[in-house]
Amino acid sequence: MVQVDFRSRVPIYEQLVEKYKELIIKGVLVEDEKLPSVRALSKELGVNPNTIQKAYRELERQEYIYSIKGKGSYVMGRQDRKNNEEKNKIKNELKKVMTQAMYSGITFDEIKSIIDEVMNERGI
């Protein structure tokens, strides 16, 4: 299912990450589907198991897969990934705005007051 180009300048683990992301995004690999074990994929592709493990770790970091110790790696649900991606995007935007606010002289108490105001408006 997955192939790597040994002549490419792109590292093998990056090729694997991109191929698996593509398969997951296109729906070829579905939620909770088990991925091949590190050893099995390593043997199939003729690649060092550490390379496969590195690719799986990166996919997990990017929240495309999750691992269960002793069981293997599985495809993460789209909704979970979408929510996490959205949360990370919002967190990054908040950090930028907070930095701008600090440079503009807005104090922590003023920021806290704004947060309280928004929470009260939303009934939280």
Automatic annotation (TrEMBL):
Pfam families, sorted: GntR
Keyword Transcription: yes
Matches recorded under CDD domains: WHTH_GntR (cd07377)
PROSITE patterns hit by this protein: HTH_GNTR
Keyword list, A-Z: DNA-binding, Transcription, Transcription regulation
PANTHER family registered for this protein in UniProt: HTH-TYPE TRANSCRIPTIONAL REPRESSOR YTRA
Name under which the protein is recorded: GntR family transcriptional regulator
Source organism (scientific name): Oceanirhabdus seepicola
